[in-house]
Every structure is written in C-alpha cells, then in structure tokens.
Amino acid sequence: MIFATKLSGEQVELDYKHIEPLRKEILYYFDQNIGDIKNAYVPESDYTYNYWEYLNIEGTDLYKQDENFFIDGCLLITNAMVCEYINIPSGNQQVFKTTTLQEITDYVSAFKPKEDYQHEAKIITLTGLKIAKSISDKLDILEDISETQNPRLLSFYEGAKWLDEKVIGGYLSERVKRFYNKI
Length: 183
Description:
Elements: E1 2-5, E2 11-14, H1 16-33, E3 57-59, H2 67-86, H3 101-110, H4 116-136, H5 153-180
Helix pairs in contact: 1-2, 2-4, 2-5, 3-4, 4-5
C-alpha cells in the first residue's frame, strides 16, 4: 500500500488499482519526454492525475522501495505541466484543469523531500510555478514569454533539464544496471 498525505494532513490509502495506472503514466511520460522537458508532451487525455497530490507519499510492504519512483515521476510531470503552461505560443494554459496555481504551489511547498536531489527539484518546480503565476494575469495579452519578460525563465529551463536528466536518466540507468548488470 501507499499512503498520500493531502494538504489537510489527511492520509489517503492508494490501492493497487489506483497506484499501478499512475506508474504507467509516469513510465509513459519518461518514454515520451526524455531529453525534452522544455517541450514536454503532456496532453490532458494521457495524463489524468493531479500529480502534485502524490508528492508526500509513504509506501509500505512492496511499495516501500518504489516511493522515490512515484515522488520523482510526479514531481517531473508537475514540472513538465508548468513548462506546458508557460509556453505561451504553443502550450496549454488549461493543463492543470480546474486546480489553481496556488493549490499546486501549496502542495509542492508542503512536499518533504526524502533525498537531497529532491530538495533541488522542489526549488526548480516552485520557481516554475512563480513564473506561471507572474504571467497568469497577462495570458490574454502575451504572445510569448522570454527572458526579458521573466529573468528566471532561463534558470528554470536549465533546472528542468537537470531534473529530466537526474530522474529519467537515473531511473533508466539503474534499471539497466540492476537487470543487465551493465553501465
């Protein structure tokens, strides 16, 4: 079992029927977006979870060893959705559906990293959310967002690229090493 902690502090139990489709979406994301998080492919039809709600999870039994996989995957997809949101010309500013940027920010802020690199990933995601908030009131007049409009944009994209390499690259390298004893 895995338990997710909501903002209210309530712990929600996630059973096999809930968690395994989430695993599939994370793996699908890894396959579709490796190396290109800035232009991430996150269509609403394929990504159905509120990933930010799964950052504070605790696994038991068989799922204990999978905690970081789910945390990293959900953080990476949340970050990719931020990239989608701030990509004014071709992105989707409805990527978060009815969830407000503030609620997503609250979930990411409440996230308690289990690993050192997750702390850096949290900061990167919060930076992206700040950029998204800074443009959300101007969406109807903006044609594009650039470094001149938001000086943190380049830093955010560099951080997102690092996160992509750390999470997807790390996951795939570890899987190959574990099962094929290579790399």
